[in-house]
Design goal:
Layout: H1 8-18, H2 25-29, H3 66-69, H4 73-86, E1 106-111, E2 113-114, E3 134-152, E4 161-169, E5 179-181, E6 204-205, E7 209-223, E8 225-229, E9 235-237, E10 246-251, H5 278-285, E11 297-298, H6 303-313, H7 318-323, H8 329-332, H9 353-356, H10 359-363, E12 373-374, H11 376-379, E13 398-403, H12 415-429, E14 439-441, E15 447-449, E16 471-476, H13 487-503, E17 511-515, E18 527-531, E19 533-535, H14 547-550, H15 553-563
Parallel strand pairs: 12-15, 13-16, 13-19, 14-16
Antiparallel strand pairs: 1-10, 2-3, 3-6, 3-7, 3-10, 4-5, 4-7, 8-9, 11-12, 14-15, 17-18
Length: 566
Amino acid sequence: MRGYLASSIAVTCAAALAFPLALSTDAVAAPPAAESPTTDRATPDRPASDRTARARPETPSTSKTPAETAKSAKSAETAAGAAGAAAPALAPASAGSATDRSIPGSTQSLPLAPLTPPPSDRTLPPTSAPASTTQGLPRRDVRHFSLVGVVWDNPDTELQGRVQVRTRASGTAKWSVWQDVDTHNHEHAADPDTAERTSGRVRGSTAPLWVGDSDGVEVRVQAEADGRPEADGRAVAGDPLPRGLHIELIDPGVDPAAEPPPGQASGVDTPRGNVLSPEAAASSAVNADLAPLGATAIPALSQKQTEADLVATRGETAEAAGAKDKPGGSKDKPVVKDKPGTTGKTGTIGPGDAADTGADQRVKPYIGARPRIVTRRGWGADETLRERNFSYTKTVKAAFVHHTASGNNYRCAQAPSVIRSIYRYHVKSSGWRDIGYNFLIDKCGNIYEGRAGGVAKPVMGAHTLGFNTNSMGIAVLGSFGASNPPAAAVKAIAKLTAWKLGLFGANPKGKTYLKSGGGNLYRKGKNVRLNVISGHRDGFATECPGGRLYAKLGTARVTSARYQGR
């Protein structure tokens, strides 16, 4: 039987001790980027809350799995040995080697002001709107950015209106057409009354929009008209716009070192030859039983490998499983209980699984082959942005599928940049503890680790307001209200859910009950029956994940169950 890694926290601590994690001179002493004279604020490393002079306290981790709260000396020794054994996999940093801070990125936050469209501009409906219902930013030269979004002070206030931007491609005089930004984004958030939601840092925000490399921007925001005509025929403006409107311009930073495409990768993706920061070491250590510390991707396993590893991880050898088929085997020998929180190459078993998983699942588990997953290090996460602690829920009973509503104008090679931008927007601009989704999928079907804490663990996300507990969130990069999702992305949803839900004994074609944390469809405390693979709109009145992607979820459920062997 494979040995168990005792706990994620112990592994993290041991990994940090195992490495003399000195940042390079460039990372420590690099001067701040020069302030552009055309921008009011450039915030490469400053939290959004600093704009309102609020402190940024560290939010403590919420519920932990039993294995993660274990602090026995034996556990620490076991983890230290595991981390120490993995340490040689990382090449020592040379004097000129890069560190994780070589992908810094930046955020420019510009205030919006009252704006009156010129009479010749007929792209917005005429209105008698006062200044409080029409704001914007005239054409402006700015530093490089690739993603935009609008934020405001109060996260409980919705922006009822229309947000449009146009941008200028870097190094050119070419301006884009006006593009709409999805304003209904508050349902992608931490649950009410949670530490993340009540931190004092969270702000209202639109969905992010990927615009590509740009160095000029123009913005206009108009409140929704209430439908009543004025005497001159113009529409009466509706509610005022939220206070504190800013346009956020996100530069994702340079791409991490190129890695071979999934089809050309062989074996385990090797770690990059540079020094891990303490935060990066912690983020990688929680996946250390799946791939070496510092790895850019967790390798795929075959169906047979995944099943065998899960059986071994759950505390039952193949011989013991086979004995159940012999006369008197299952009667004379007590059933070996699962060990909640234990880890193996396949992943972590949540504490709720021991009671829910039957003998058949232990002998031959219903689980799909583990897919290849690009780690946070693989897509270039700056681990100093997120909160240091990880937050966990008890188990994973359901998967909510989303689209990022960030547009489809990206190449698969740009997906890491898109994810880094969304990560920065969620943390620095919106005030979240980390990126909200547990996993992300690009149009080519590549799967990426989202919120830190371990891909096989029940990490608490901020993706489906009211239903983040005991669930996971999967976001497909793009907008799928009017566009069909790529078949590769739908297949990736099926592969990912077949594996991750299988770790927790969930049937992709089945139903489950989740308790609402509060939302616009279900009151707080109500037990709601949902599909194990649901769309965001099943838990909250929203367009997400877009009608075209939502229509494919039936196919994803059937395919996922088939991958599990059901």
